[in-house]
TrEMBL record:
Organism: Cyanidiococcus yangmingshanensis
Domain annotation Thioredoxin: ranges: 112-275
Official protein name in the record: Thioredoxin domain-containing protein
SUPFAM superfamilies, A to Z: Thioredoxin-like (SSF52833)
Molecular function terms, GO-annotated: antioxidant activity; oxidoreductase activity
Amino acid sequence: MIRNRSERIRDSVTHYRRACTPRAGVPRYRSAEQRGRMRTLACAKDHLCFLWTHRFIACRGASQRVACGRTGSRRVVLGGTYRVSLFGRRRAAAAVNLPLDVRMVRTESAMVELGTVMPSFALPDVTTGEMVSLDSLYADSPPPKALVVVFLSAHCPFVKHIAGELSRLSADIGSGKFGPVKMVGISSNFVGTHPEDAPERMAEEIKTRRYQFPILYDETQEVARAWMAACTPDFFLLDHERKLFYRGRLDGSRPGNNIPITGEDLRNAIQLCVNGQSPPGNQLPSMGCSIKWKPS
């Protein structure tokens, strides 16, 4: 059945109103207005929005502006993850103009039960090509009291944001500040879509960022899946028995939130682990760019 223009507009408005109707677990948008091919949506701070238009969208929430083109559907998260409705037939990718130009979906780490013995792995070092296994990382006698494993990438602005602290943390670990602790990075992104995360580029990152830990290349992405890694950066802290002790963020700093980068959450967890104390009670998830999986 062919619908006329007024019917299509009426249906679009109906879908739009449904998207803005308060429901349990769904953020309420304060107001919205339509102006031809430009649509403006005023959002409450820290809300996720699916936005659509022919040409341009501006989001006046949390002092952020959102501009987009007709390149498919993508969500924008201004902190936190929420359920929201899609409306309209035309969709647009949106990009938040943050200081580090965050243009991808923010993803939180998936919680893994503390005390879980993490799966073994054997992956090549991006610098030397030598195989490094979880067994070899615990081969010292006595074994390290803690092992920091971080899934990371070169392109992600969330990783770039904390690169300086990762360098400082690795230097402190290498100097023995925490005691017998080791640190290793894993790169699992699909280089077919993100060549900047290829092994040779990650090797350059080690030199540029002055990381004092090896980065391993998870080409098959089997390790990322086995460990339930979800984003970059994504942190795992294991104790001397290879059991998961901490599964959380580095600290509360994010691109654009003006919170100083201290690494306090992870640093505190490392010290507790080395001291043989209980894990931190309130473990907040890390947040970053989603891992770029190979197409199925």
